[in-house]
C-alpha cells in the first residue's frame, strides 16, 4: 500500500495543472445543444497541445437521451441522437478550452438487465468485458465515471449499475464515480444531496446545465478535486494495476517523445518561416530605404524648384505692380490728353466759326471794292472834302500816282477776329 501511494504521488501531475491552466485560459466558449459543433482535430493537430492537458470520461446510465446531451454539452457539439442505440461502447473526443477531452458512452441496456437478481448475475461478466473495452478506449484509464441522470427523472435503478461496477472492479471504481444531473435550470440541491445514489458515490454529484458555460468548467474542477483525494490520478482496474505500473511510464515517455517531436518539427517550420519572413522583410526594408532616399532627393529638388518659383512669382508680382502703376499713369495721361483734345476741338470749332465770319467779311469787302474805286474818282474831284472826311473818320490815305486814296480802316475788324 505504501508503494502504491508513492507511485500515485509521483504520477499525480496530470490533472492538477489543468485547473490552473483553465483559470488562465477562458477563451473557449460554451455552446448549448443549438450551437455549432466543434471540429474533432486530427492527431497531428493534437501534438500542438500539452499531452497532459486532457480529460477522459466514461458515461454510465440508462437514459440514452440524457447521456447524449451530456456528451454534447461537455464536448460542445451538436450531434443528432441516433435512433438505433449502440450495444457497444463508443468514444467521441474534442477540444475544450485547450484540453483534449475524450468521452466514452456505455450502452443504456446495462441498467435494464441489472434490474433483477437473475439478470444481474448473468450480465455481470458481459458488462465487465464491455466496460473493460470502454476503459481501453481511454488508455491509460478514465479520470472519472459519470453516472448521468436527468434531473427529476431518476428511476433509482442506477444503484444496480453502481452495484455491478463495485462488484466487478471494487470499491475503488466507486471512488472515481460522480453522479451527473442534466438540467435546464437550477434544481433543488437539498433533495439531490439526499438521493441514495449520491450517498453511494460518497456525496459526489454535479449539476450540468444546458445553458451555462461555468457548469462545464466546474465539472472539470470537481474531477480534479476528486483525483487529488484518490491514490491515483485516474482509475486503473486492479488486475491491470501492476501491468500499468510497468508499462505506463514507457507509454507516457513514448507519448511525450511524440509530442516533443511534433513540437520540434513545428518549431523548425516556424524557424524556417521566420527566416523567410526575415529575408523578405530585409528586402522590403532595403526597398523602403531606397524609396525613402529617392523621395528625399525629390523633396529637395521640389524645395529648390519651389524657391525658384517663389522668386519668379515675386518678380512677376513686382512687374505686375509696376505695370499697374504705369497703366494708371497712362490712364491719367490719356484722360488729360482727351480733355486737351476736347478743348482743342472746341477752339478749332470756334476758329472755324470765326473763319467763316471773316470769309463773309472778306466777301463783303470784295463786293465793296468796285464801289471804292468809284469813290476814289470822286475823291480826286473833291480833295478838300475828302481830307476833312479823313480827319473825321481816321481813314488812312493811299497815294495812287499823284493822288491819295483813303481806304477804310479794317484793323478793328481784324482785331475782333
UniProtKB/TrEMBL annotation:
<protein>
    <submittedName>
        <fullName>GTPase IMAP family member 7-like</fullName>
    </submittedName>
</protein>
<feature type="region of interest" description="Disordered">
    <location>
        <begin position="320"/>
        <end position="345"/>
    </location>
</feature>
<dbReference type="InterPro" id="IPR045058">
    <property type="entry name" value="GIMA/IAN/Toc"/>
</dbReference>
<dbReference type="InterPro" id="IPR006703">
    <property type="entry name" value="G_AIG1"/>
</dbReference>
<keyword id="KW-0342">GTP-binding</keyword>
<feature type="compositionally biased region" description="Basic and acidic residues">
    <location>
        <begin position="19"/>
        <end position="30"/>
    </location>
</feature>
<dbReference type="InterPro" id="IPR027417">
    <property type="entry name" value="P-loop_NTPase"/>
</dbReference>
<comment type="similarity">
    <text>Belongs to the TRAFAC class TrmE-Era-EngA-EngB-Septin-like GTPase superfamily. AIG1/Toc34/Toc159-like paraseptin GTPase family. IAN subfamily.</text>
</comment>
<feature type="region of interest" description="Disordered">
    <location>
        <begin position="282"/>
        <end position="303"/>
    </location>
</feature>
<feature type="region of interest" description="Disordered">
    <location>
        <begin position="1"/>
        <end position="33"/>
    </location>
</feature>
<feature type="region of interest" description="Disordered">
    <location>
        <begin position="374"/>
        <end position="404"/>
    </location>
</feature>
<dbReference type="Pfam" id="PF04548">
    <property type="entry name" value="AIG1"/>
</dbReference>
<dbReference type="GO" id="GO:0005525">
    <property type="term" value="F:GTP binding"/>
</dbReference>
<keyword id="KW-0547">Nucleotide-binding</keyword>
<feature type="domain" description="AIG1-type G">
    <location>
        <begin position="56"/>
        <end position="248"/>
    </location>
</feature>
Amino acid at each position: 500500500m505504501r508503494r502504491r501511494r508513492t507511485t500515485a504521488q509521483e504520477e499525480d501531475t496530470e490533472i492538477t495543472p489543468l485547473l490552473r491552466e483553465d483559470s488562465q485560459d477562458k477563451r473557449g466558449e460554451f455552446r448549448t445543444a443549438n450551437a455549432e459543433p466543434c471540429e474533432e482535430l486530427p492527431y497531428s493537430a493534437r501534438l500542438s497541445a500539452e499531452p497532459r492537458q486532457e480529460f477522459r470520461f466514461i458515461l454510465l446510465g440508462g437514459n440514452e437521451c440524457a447521456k447524449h446531451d451530456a456528451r454534447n454539452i461537455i464536448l460542445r457539439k451538436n450531434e443528432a441522437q441516433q435512433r438505433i442505440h449502440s450495444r457497444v461502447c463508443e468514444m467521441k473526443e474534442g477540444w475544450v478550452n485547450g484540453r483534449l477531452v475524450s468521452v466514452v458512452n456505455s450502452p443504456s441496456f446495462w441498467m435494464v438487465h441489472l434490474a433483477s437478481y437473475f439478470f444481474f448475475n448473468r450480465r455481470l461478466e458481459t458488462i465487465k468485458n464491455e466496460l473493460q473495452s470502454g476503459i481501453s478506449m481511454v488508455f491509460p484509464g478514465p479520470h472519472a465515471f459519470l453516472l448521468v441522470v436527468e434531473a427529476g427523472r431518476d428511476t433509482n435503478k442506477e444503484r444496480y449499475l453502481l452495484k455491478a461496477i463495485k462488484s466487478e472492479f471494487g470499491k475503488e471504481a466507486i471512488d472515481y464515480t460522480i453522479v451527473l444531473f442534466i438540467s435546464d435550470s437550477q434544481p433543488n440541491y437539498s433533495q439531490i444531496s439526499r438521493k441514495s445514489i449520491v450517498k453511494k458515490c460518497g456525496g459526489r454529484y454535479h449539476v450540468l446545465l444546458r445553458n451555462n458555460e461555468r457548469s462545464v468548467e466546474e465539472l472539470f474542477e470537481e474531477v480534479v478535486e476528486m483525483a487529488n483525494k484518490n491514490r491515483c490520478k485516474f482509475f486503473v482496474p486492479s488486475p491491470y494495476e501492476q501491468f500499468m505500473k510497468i508499462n505506463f511510464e514507457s507509454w507516457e515517455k513514448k507519448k511525450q517523445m511524440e509530442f516533443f517531436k511534433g513540437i520540434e518539427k513545428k518549431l523548425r517550420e516556424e524557424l524556417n518561416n521566420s527566416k523567410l519572413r526575415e529575408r523578405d522583410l530585409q528586402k522590403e526594408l532595403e526597398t523602403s530605404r531606397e524609396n525613402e532616399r529617392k523621395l528625399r532627393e525629390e523633396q529637395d529638388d521640389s524645395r529648390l524648384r519651389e524657391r525658384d518659383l517663389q522668386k519668379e512669382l515675386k518678380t512677376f508680382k513686382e512687374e505686375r505692380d509696376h505695370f499697374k502703376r504705369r497703366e494708371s499713369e497712362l490712364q491719367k495721361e490719356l484722360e488729360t490728353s482727351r480733355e486737351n483734345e476736347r478743348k482743342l476741338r472746341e477752339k478749332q470749332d470756334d476758329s472755324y466759326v470765326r473763319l467763316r465770319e471773316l470769309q463773309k467779311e472778306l466777301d463783303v469787302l470784295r463786293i465793296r471794292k468796285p464801289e471804292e474805286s468809284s469813290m476814289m474818282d470822286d475823291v480826286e474831284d473833291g480833295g478838300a472834302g475828302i481830307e476833312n472826311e479823313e480827319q473825321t473818320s481816321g481813314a488812312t490815305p493811299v497815294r495812287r500816282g499823284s493822288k491819295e486814296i483813303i481806304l477804310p480802316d479794317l484793323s478793328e475788324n481784324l482785331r475782333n477776329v
